Amino acid sequence: MHLYGTQTVNGKGHLTIGGVDTVDLAHTYGTPLVVYDIALFRERAQAFKETFNNVGVRAQVAYASKAFSSIAIYEIANQEGLSLDVVSGGELHTAVVAGFPRERIHFHGNNKSFTELQYAFDEKIGCIVIDNFSEIALVKEIAESRQEKMNVLIRVTPGVEASTHDYITTGQEDSKFGFDLKNGQTDKAFRQLHDHPYIKLLGMHCHIGSQIFETDAFRLAAEALMEKMIVWRDDYEFVCEVLNLGGGFGIRYTEEDQPLNPSAYVEEMAEVVLSLTRTHNYPLPEIWIEPGRSLVGDAGTSLYTVGSMKEVPGVRTYIAVDGGMSDNIRPALYGAKYTAVTANRMDESHEKQVTIAGKCCESGDKLIEEAHLVEPAEGDIIAMFCTGAYGYSMASNYNRLPKPAVVFCENGHHQLVVRRETYEDVVRLDIPLQSVEQLEKI
């Protein structure tokens, strides 16, 4: 079996993460529980930064925090010198509460509200990534009314189609995101922004998708944006200071996945940019990237406790756990595949094929259809690997299930960073129905 990061098996035959026994974690905090290997997060962050240093390119590595957003992970990102990509007022507020340096916050999103944009100006964040013409008008209105400057990037769709799931492909022409590079939208946006007195256009941004394993699409995207930047230099004497090539670097969820080392993506993109700047005598821009999944995806492991079991003779064995699509919607949403182990019996043979079902009242609530575990027993602790990205961040209270707790582990220590929801939390925003008499008094 493939273990990730600091995962090992201790003398009790238990899976450990960050030097901490996962069975002890399950007993201490309960299940479902999301456990993060913080040493792995730090290792990945430093690897991206070191690769840029090695190729001699100025860069910002921004954690794409929609993958997993919390005060504690923002604090870790800041400790590692990362920038931060937020996509909503809620994520921005989390960054503010975490004390994240505002100048390293980049605000994305295809439908930022007027209130959200005002908040970005209030906090004097580092950059707004402008997604559409409506947003240009809103940013101009706020900047002019306040007479305050704001750095911006133009998000473009370069017409590059990456090999990934349709739901997480974002760089093709038919996308809800950004200005089309080929039909003149990007040039129109540029003309509206580049000489505005309160808007400093830093350059361009693209993001071609997620869970991408090859480098060809990243090279094509870099080439397309660099070519447009050269045109703007030649036609308008405008030089882009920043080229943001997004994220989307794939990770290993199952043995079928063959991701590249994160440095390979950086090296390929940098090679394209360096070559074109030399050929066209263009000042080398600062390159920004936005890894999310590749920082937290395989750093996260979900722990569940086995409950009921059901044998369908000649078909399959179901084992039900105390979580499911409420804490990880990805298998039901787009058929995402995972691997799992029996965390409390790691030294036993994992040859029993089972379907791990969740407890939500949906037939489609299956976390893994063909998991290979130890012959299951009620009370076993199941560890499902690589759940650190888009698990907790997409969690819901479907069936009024409380969201799980989140724990960070590192160097033998563990720390609760998101508490488990209670039933009281689930009903906290509900308002009881008022009687007619009460309504008449309003």
Automatic annotation (TrEMBL):
Keywords: Amino-acid biosynthesis, Decarboxylase, Lyase, Lysine biosynthesis, Pyridoxal phosphate. Signal peptide: none annotated. It holds the Pfam family Orn_Arg_deC_N. It catalyses: meso-2,6-diaminopimelate + H(+) = L-lysine + CO2. Pathway: Amino-acid biosynthesis; L-lysine biosynthesis via DAP pathway; L-lysine from DL-2,6-diaminopimelate: step 1/1. Coiled coil: none annotated. HAMAP family: LysA. It comes from Sporosarcina soli. Residues 41-296 form the Orn/DAP/Arg decarboxylase 2 N-terminal domain. The gene is lysA. Its cofactor is pyridoxal 5'-phosphate. This is Diaminopimelate decarboxylase. The keyword Repressor does not apply. It comes from the Bacteria. The modification N6-(pyridoxal phosphate)lysine is found at residue 66. Its EC number is 4.1.1.20. PANTHER family: DIAMINOPIMELATE DECARBOXYLASE, GROUP IV DECARBOXYLASE.
